[in-house]
Amino acid sequence: MIQSLTTLRNWLALAGFIVATFCAPLFGAAAMPGTWYAALNKPAWNPPAWLFGPAWTLLYTLMAVAAWLVWKRDGWRRPLLLYFVQLLLNAAWTPIFFGAQELGWAMVEMLALWTAILLTMLSFHRISRPAGWLFAPYLAWVTFAAVLNFALWRLNPA
Fold first, then answer.
1. Average pLDDT over residues 92-115
2. Which residues contact 59 (CB under 8 A, 6 or more apart)?
3. What CATH code is carried by the domain that includes residue 90?
4. What pLDDT does 117 receive?
């Protein structure tokens, strides 16, 4: 009985981390790319629009699993605080970039996000190596996104 309650608790916690993590993109859902973004000058290596949905779905899933693994080992400690800080920064980028159309401020925010991701990844790695490595694709993607954000900012001066 206790074993099944623990198993149920773990599965519910994983579901909670998935739901909480996927709430981040909902924050920016009102500020979607539109005609403004379509009209921007873009570098030749700008990814096609269809790639972003599947990429972020995979990344958010990996992030949630990583947070869950850390929670199972360490509970509600500093690494999960870092996790939620980076998640808030993740959620803030879309309204700044697409909503406010502030490419420079979005770049500043992106650098804060990148730093928070790295700190989260390192803190996760100390508790669970798999959890730390699950953050590697996210850090790589955000590194690419930061370079793209910078290129868009430079190609489209205000």
1. 95
2. 137, 138, 141
3. 1.20.1260.100
4. 98
